[in-house]
Amino acid sequence: MRRRSAGVLAPLSTLPGEFGIGNLGQGARELIDFLSSTGFQYWQICPVGPTGFGDSPYQSFSSFAGNPYFIDLDELVAVGLLGAVELDRLRALPAEKVDYGDLYQEFWPVLSLAHARFVEQGEAAPWGGMAALQAFEDAHADWLPSYAAFMALKHRFGGHPWRLWPEQWRDWQPGIEQTLPNSAAAEARRQRFYQFVFIRQWQALRDYAQQGGVSIIGDLPIFVALDSADTWRWREVFRIDAAGVPEAIAGVPPDYFSDRGQCWGNPLYDWDYLKQTGYDWWIKRLGAAFQMCDVVRLDHFRGFHDFWEIPMDAVDARRGKWIAGPGLTFFTAIAEALPGACLIAEDLGYINAGVVALRRAAGLPGMKILQFGYGHDDNNVNLPHFFDRDTVVYPGTHDNNTTRGWLAGLDRDHRELVAAYFGVDVDADSAWPLIRAALASASRLAVIPLQDLFDLPASARLNRPGTVAGNWQWRYTREQLSALAVERGDILRQWRELFDRTGDDKQRDYSAPPDALPPAVAVSAPSRITTSLTS
């Protein structure tokens, strides 16, 4: 059976809560309850790693750590590590957006205080006390000590990138965390505690989601941040010279989002080294992701086929060139190391036949964006009547305008085309006709951004690619979600049944053979990667 299902896209930062940013507490559980009540089976998030300048979850300090901002502080009050009054300044932060500057100033002293009290209480501390913390550190010894040391040194040296640190600390060495100055060692202990709390809360939330029949779709950026514990600790994995300067950087050529392309600034991988090691680092990275999530979206899937290499001295991305990526050998290694792992390929943008062939050979579903059916994609492959089953459809993603904002920005000719295709009034700006079209499409999974379910205008847009200011700030309120459940819950349940998005075995057999593949890539051993979406 090919199970059809539906989900919602809502990054953790967007959730409601009292402490300036969404977290793993009650707001997350209320969203899961909403999904369960409507029969939606998936909650898709953005990356949850700790962020730096620009606050982008796609530029994280670690591929393995969680962002302490997402810790539910209410639980710390409940177990006696914090007092309610100590959170008053955080409660004064805006509820409708994330003010990262004020959050930074107010959050860390509070979390540091919780750690101090945990240490003071020793074995009497909550969650098993110091013994449980030590057991956690032992279980994550492959990445946690270096991550905590990285964050401590970064704090000690004023937030500067590691390549600008004093030479003594610039190059990671085994045991370096044992040689930290006292103040940095204290900060490293705090950082390890923050991860202990985060991952403990995450597992509790994931258990809650599973009990409600909701699976979590995570998001894994293909590249890592240049200034990260990853590049500091695993220098050999990346094309970075002895001084910490990348040979070239990642990005994309001119596209829908920018006529100059995008310089992401991420270092590129040494794929030859990775292949020689059996892609061990990537297997560990994906393994960690699947400890957190049920499904993982591979961001910028094209980079596994070929990636845009930009010279370090380029003023923008137009001077780049395409370089061959690891190809099918990478996915074969992943399938062998992580059998049953479920991946989604983010294959958006301008891709070639080789990218399509690789995705099919790897057995991965791709993505379709309804907004891309008009305005820039002349072949209209993002219109529902062209979709095949092995796709995940979205009205838009975190990188797009809200659907209502997108509709409002169309010129008259495109507005008339949209109105004719979806059978709506030419002046209607509602996202709901496109939500219905996504659910009605042939795509096996339909994921709807929460802003579109709320039918919000462009002011609720989450990210504008190619820009660094004003992104990742939008949040919703509990009242909005409650109103959605009351006003639209019934229609969502009706559409879920009408379009067979029940996620169970009581539906039609969609197991007809897939489209024929090009002979050169017809071998598809890694097809088991998508087990949980295809069976």
Keywords summarizing the entry:
four-stranded antiparallel beta sheet, 535 residues, globular, 12 strands, alpha/beta, eight-stranded parallel beta sheet
Give structural notes.
- This protein is an alpha/beta fold and 535 residues long.
- Helices cover 38% and strands 10% of the residues.
- The protein has helices spanning 26-38, 73-78, 88-91, 100-121, 129-139, 144-156, 167-170, 182-211, 229-233, 271-276, 280-292, 328-337, 353-362, 403-408, 412-422, 432-440, 450-453, 478-498, 531-534; strands at 5-9, 42-44, 215-220, 248-252, 262-267, 295-298, 306-311, 321-324, 343-345, 366-369, 391-394, 445-449.
- The longest helix has 30 residues, at 182-211.
- It is globular, with a radius of gyration of 23 Å.
Q: Major beta sheet, specifics?
A: 8 strands, parallel
Query: What structural class should be given to the helix and strand makeup?
Result: alpha/beta
Taking all Cα atoms into account, the compactness measure Rg is 23 Å
Helix segment count?
A: 19
Q: How would you write the strand order of the largest sheet?
A: 9-6-3-2-1-12-11-10
Helix content: 25-40%
Separation, N- and C-terminal Cα atoms: 6 Å
Which stretches are poorly predicted, pLDDT < 50 over at least 5 residues?
505-535
Q: Could you say which overall geometry the principal axes of the C-alpha atoms support?
A: globular
Mean of all residue-level pLDDT scores: 91
Strand content: 5-15%
E-strand count: 12
